Amino acid sequence: MLNSLSGRFLILTTIFVMLAEILIFVPSVARFREDYLLSRLERSQIASLALLANDAIDEDLQEELLQNAGVYNIVLRRNEARQLILDAPVPAPISKTFDMRDPSAMVLIRDALMRLAKPEPEVIRVIGEPLHMAGLLIEVAMDTGELRMAMIDYGLRILILSAVISVITAMMLFFAVRRFIVKPIKRVVSSMKTYSQAPEDVRGVITPSAGVIELREAEETLQVMQVQLTQSLRQKERLAQLGGAVAKVSHDLRNILTSAQLFTDRIEMSEDPTVRRLAPKLVNSITRAVHLCESTLAFGKAEEPAPRLTMLRLADLVEDVMLGERLALGADEPIELREIVPPTLELRADAEQLHRVLSNLVRNARQAMSAEGIAGEVRIEAQEDDHAWFLRVCDTGPGLPEKARTHLFTPFQGGTRKGGTGLGLSISSELIRGHGGTLELERSDAEGTIFLITLPKGALAPV
């Protein structure tokens, strides 16, 4: 209960209302003390008027007038003359004098707090202005015992009233918060729980109904997220089913095409000139079809192992990559393969996976240039700074077409050459992401293409 939003709101509301009442309590008690002293001056003035009207008042009547006024003596100044009107024995010397003619608020608050803090009664002098211009000044001597008790009684009544107001206010706010804030929040939480149990069921999508603007916006945002997630899950499910079907078809088709390859070997041995001329094209078509099936199966398995990061000398790995590509170069391909890698440069990576990525990028560049019959070079450059290693695969080819750049790393859509599947760059990008790095197209224009691989040096920061 107390750990809930409404429970904590109840506690905070009670505390804040009590603090507000305390801020009101201090000036209220100060005002009560001022009114108390002014009432003593007023009663004393009335008692003095009785004596001024009749000088022949006996001592018993004087004592009764002083008791009714609550003072020990009364001094009235009229016409610049200070006159002791009524007098009785004072039990103790006067300790302090308080001028009530024009005190400031801070002085009244200070004097009130000092009176509450001092339990011992004492005799004080109070000075004020007579009412209705009945003199220039009136002063009385009085005891503070009754004053302090009256202030305490008044303060307790204020505190009790403040507590009652605080509780009532807090309870009203408590039920209001539960009705207008907590209940809609619980509804949102309940909808999220229900939706999480069956996200594919659209009945679990929340329907915005909150009256509070902020909660309404939260419900609408949640509704959009749930609808999009439901659609994504359905799409992924359809893609998974389609992927399974494609994998099965690709598997069977690969077996059929492999058998067809064996038959084409026999066809190439035919003596018919037309057959001998068309056989290589048939073999190339079948080979590309087999390659597509194998790539589709490999991508559909999604069983790429996590990289095993070790420190390795990059120059050795790049040399191995370039050696394999040089062996694959045809005699009619005027392409130069170069590596610009510092011989002592070491980086942290999975050697096998990085080899695959570099081989794929170099092969793509070489095949694109060969398809266009362009002479030039393909090179691998490497450098580092304090934060990362940077590897660039550059070529002097014609650049990538606009369509290829738009879907460059999208499976089956980012093919950069005719007959390609578009899986090489997608798999390469996935492998580099597994290293915590990035693979991006840095530049592609009429002067050539540059792919940039960035591998961070630092370890992943703990969350």
- Estimate the global geometry from the Cα principal axes: rod-shaped
Contiguous helical run count: 10
What share of the residues lie within helices? Answer: 55-70%
Structural class comes to alpha+beta
**Order of strands across the main sheet:** 2-1-5-4-3
Protein name: histidine kinase
Keywords: ATP-binding, Kinase, Membrane, Nucleotide-binding, Phosphoprotein, Transferase, Transmembrane, Transmembrane helix, Two-component regulatory system
InterPro entries: HATPase_C_sf (IPR036890), HATPase_dom (IPR003594), His_kinase_dom (IPR005467), HisK_dim/P_dom (IPR003661), HisK_dim/P_sf (IPR036097), Sig_transdc_His_kin-like_C (IPR004358)
Organism: Roseovarius nubinhibens (strain ATCC BAA-591 / DSM 15170 / ISM)
Write the layout of secondary structure elements.
Layout: H1 5-53, H2 59-69, E1 73-78, E2 81-87, E3 94-99, H3 105-117, E4 123-128, E5 137-143, H4 145-197, H5 213-268, H6 273-301, E6 310-313, H7 314-328, E7 335-340, E8 346-349, H8 351-372, E9 376-384, E10 388-395, H9 402-406, H10 424-434, E11 438-445, E12 448-456
Parallel strand pairs: 3-4, 7-9
Antiparallel strand pairs: 1-2, 1-5, 4-5, 6-8, 9-10, 10-12, 11-12
Helix pairs in contact: 1-2, 1-3, 1-4, 4-5, 5-6, 7-8, 8-10
Protein name: histidine kinase
Organism: Roseovarius nubinhibens (strain ATCC BAA-591 / DSM 15170 / ISM)
Domain Histidine kinase: 248-459
